[in-house]
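dumping this here before i forget
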Amino acid sequence: MGSRSKKSERCRRCRMHVQLCICRSIPRYPLDTRLVLVMHRREHTKTTATGPLALEALPNSELRIHGHQDRPLDFSDLNIPERRTLLLYPGEDVPILTRSLLDRDSRPVTLVVPDGNWRQAARMGRRLPGLEHAEMVRLPEGPRTGWGIRRESHTEGLATFEAIARALGIIESPAVQAGMEDLFRLMVQRTLQARGGCRFSSQT
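structure:
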């Protein structure tokens, strides 16, 4: 194997270049909250997709791929009385995810997160079949994204990983959010390092 192929080889778990693997730094949070990440099949193959890394830290999570005509998605299996389904949706016409909103219903949460930029996530959220029972919620305003690898057309846009971390900070605890964000910062730092860029700054 030549030097060129070694440089392009990636870890199957964290998707980083093998020499920059961050698997040893991935925390593990066995939460009551169940995460369902929804990705288009084309997005799932991109190394700049951040959502899959979040799944590695959350054993109570799953990935669902859409975009296969022969395998249409159906989320009706999430409609169970024991759990409350929340759909993270980037729109100004839906309630903000807050502790007071959560306190109205004590059931554990199934959080559905569409992957993609602001426009993609908004379009997907309106079209996911079987989620008529889900409550749409949006994140409160917060710091701007620290993910400078892919362009975000909307100023409130976040990397999928960031959105998941912030949502879990509200649903679960600030400690979970902080641990997830530490991993995200490491991911950004190593990604920039692989591209010859500067180190990540927490003030970005």
